[in-house]
């Protein structure tokens, strides 16, 4: 997919304030520092689009971007911040839950997972919840340039084996690197295919 235009639309804390749901929507989420901003910038080819390493816990907003006037790319606030109060974690939960279960044009969620790390409970639980709620999702393993491709493949095989313990059918997964651009064509191609 050629990205002809990518621009910021709005930041919201309420589902009701999100843009009119008149385009397919793809939302990206993951633990803080997983590489979400870098991946969104890499996908869109716009370096300042998503802000890299914004202050942890400060960005509890749903950011909408319009791509090619065809689909919405959504940057969801991450989970797993160490220094976030209980009440803001609860606010996050409410907002994300409302968004994920009631956003009518939400086509697919992309869950970002750091390719270097073994499966983390917080990610597995988040994906299980998506499954329970019937929200379609794919997984994107980030920062694959940080180790050899042999090591990346081993790590991902371990990850998928762990998921097979609870999932009959594994969600689709992508290998990505914001450094090298690996996974860009595959993820954008997937979105293009689904939008067709
Ligand atoms: P976010 O908190 O999930 O938005 O993560 P960021 O995009 O801010 O990235 C967190 C850190 O990881 C930054 O120092 C990035 O430069 C680094 N990073 C992100 N993606 C990659 C990647 O694909 N490869 C490498 N080597 N570093 C990355």
TrEMBL record:
The keyword Metal-binding applies. Its cofactor is Mg(2+). The keyword Kinase does not apply. Keywords: Cell cycle, Cell division, GTP-binding, Magnesium, Metal-binding, Nucleotide-binding, Septation. Residues 22-196 form the EngB-type G domain. It comes from the Bacteria. Pfam families: MMR_HSR1. Necessary for normal cell division and for the maintenance of normal septation. HAMAP family: GTPase_EngB. NCBIfam families: GTPase_YsxC. Belongs to the TRAFAC class TrmE-Era-EngA-EngB-Septin-like GTPase superfamily. EngB GTPase family. This is Probable GTP-binding protein EngB. It comes from Hymenobacter bucti. The lineage of its organism: Bacteria, Pseudomonadati, Bacteroidota, Cytophagia, Cytophagales. The gene is yihA.
């Amino acid at each position: 997919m050629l990205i002809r235009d990518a621009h910021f639309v709005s930041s919201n804390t309420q589902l009701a304030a999100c843009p009119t749901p008149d385009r397919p929507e793809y939302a990206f989420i993951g633990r803080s520092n997983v590489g979400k901003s870098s991946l969104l910038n890499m996908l869109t080819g716009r370096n300042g689009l998503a802000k890299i390493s914004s202050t942890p816990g400060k960005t509890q907003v749903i950011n909408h971007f319009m791509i090619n006037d065809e689909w919405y790319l959504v940057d969801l606030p991450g989970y797993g911040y160490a220094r976030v109060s209980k009440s803001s974690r609860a606010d996050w939960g409410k907002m994300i839950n409302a968004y994920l279960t009631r956003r009518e044009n939400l086509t697919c969620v992309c869950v970002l997972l750091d390719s270097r790390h073994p499966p983390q409970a917080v990610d597995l639980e988040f994906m299980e919840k998506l499954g329970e709620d019937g929200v379609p999702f794919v997984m994107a393993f980030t920062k694959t340039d940080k180790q050899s491709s042999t090591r990346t493949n081993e790590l991902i095989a371990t990850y998928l084996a762990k998921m097979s313990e609870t999932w009959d059918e594994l969600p689709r997964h992508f290998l990505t690197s914001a450094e090298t651009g690996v996974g860009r064509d595959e993820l954008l191609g997937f979105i293009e295919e689904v939008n067709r």
